[in-house]
Every structure is written in C-alpha cells, then in structure tokens.
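A student in our group prepared the protein record below, which I am reviewing. This is what I was given:
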Amino acid sequence: MTASPTLVLASGSPRRLALLEQIGIVPDHLAPTDVDETPMDGEAPNRLAQRLAQMKAEEALERTRADKTIGPAHILAADTVVALGRRVLPKAEGIAEAEACLSALSGRGHRVFTGVCLITPKERVRLRTVETRVKFKRLSRAEIDFYLASGEWHGKAGGYAIQGLAAIFVSKLIGSYTNVVGLPLFETAALLTGDGFPVAQDRSPTAPEVPSEDAPAAQPNPA
C-alpha cells in the first residue's frame, strides 16, 4: 500500500489552515517561519510576494530536513502583499499603522498579490503569483474608528481582513476572493495536484496543533 504523501504548511496562520481545510486538506505538520519581509529597493509588489513565499518554503524545508521523523514532504508556503500602485502597505502591527492603511485605501482601488511556493519531495520549486483587484468605498471617520476598535486589522496585510468586518468596505472585487484572505485555493490546488498530491481525496490526515491567533481557525475533525 502506497504511503499517504506528507504536507508541511510553512505557516502558523489559522486563516491559511482554514482555507486548506475548506478543500479537504489538513497539513501533517505546521512550520511557522520568521523571514525578513522588508521589500528590496525597487522591488515590485508581485515579486515581493513571490520572493517571500519562496523564502518561507526554503526555511521550512531546512527545518524539515533536520527533523528525521518527517521524511520527504511537500512544503507549501504563501505570502500576501497589499499594494497601492507600487507602494506596498504594511502588515499592520499598531493602530496608527492600521489607521494609515485604511485612510490610504478609502475610496480607492488596490491590488492584492499572494505568492504561493510549493517545494516537492524531490525539492523542486514550483511558484505561482495571483493578483486580485479590490476597491474600497469611501470610509467615514466613524467606520475607520469602528474597524480599528475591532482589532481585526492586527497583523493583516494592508490593515484589513476581508473575511471579517472589512467585507462591508469592498465595493468591487475582480479575481480570487481566497487570494485576498491569504491563499488562492484554485491555484494552490493546481500546484499540489500537478505534483501528484491528492486534493479532494481522503488522506485520513492527522490534525496538527494550531497556533493561537486573534481569530483561530476551526479545529480539524479527528481522523
């Protein structure tokens, strides 16, 4: 009997874990990474998202190599970037940063890029970058203050989470919704199936421990 392939998610994000669960995938291991996300001089937002996704995947690969209990695995990583033109908005860590993001996005269109990197068990690198165009309505002072008070913005690219209260700010969206949440599911599934990883099939996975976050993902059902 062929052993079930192993999937390592190079992230501690409950959002990405929940998105994978949505299409029936529960990673065997979580490997949160810590890479320098500072853009390089003149680096385009789409290139930044792709580079960071690859850096995360490569860091997770090194950790997987060192863990003799894992063996060859598919390593999946992603990074999401919100951009106004070529200006990359931060992953807001403080309320002033979040307020600046919301004020900049108010009444304007922006682009959301997610770089997705898959390193195969044979250590081949597969990359995709997905773009979604989003437009916000003009935000009132009260709406900005309400959203800031919610705390949903913390750690989010561009200072908002489209899957939460910020959904009411979006007047137009062209492209992948799940890309804006943090993992474009169509493209991610295509990367996995292209390397023989089963999607929409029963792998009888063992659920990994989910790191805590402001909005934790639903826990996987036990095998």
